[in-house]
Design goal:
single chain, alpha+beta, Ribosomal Protein L30, Chain: A, 3-stranded antiparallel beta sheet, 2 helices, 3 strands, globular
Length: 60
């Protein structure tokens, strides 16, 4: 299965509560933090919800 790296690049201050919870569910707690996930439909949907706060790259 494909893997993706998700990095938080913008702050969650002044974001709605559901977006803050989505970031925490992805494992992102601080700016600049990077986490690796499988590219499942659930994870991609969560990333799409906060796409303005994160950057995504594919890994091998």
């Amino acid at each position: 299965m494909a893997k993706i790296l998700v990095k938080q690049v913008r702050s969650k201050i002044n974001c709605p509560l559901n977006q803050k919870r989505t970031l925490e569910a992805l494992g992102l707690r601080k700016m600049g933090q990077v986490v690796e996930h499988d590219a499942t439909s659930a994870i991609l949907g969560m990333v799409n919800k906060v796409k303005h706060l994160v950057s995504v790259e594919e890994t091998k």
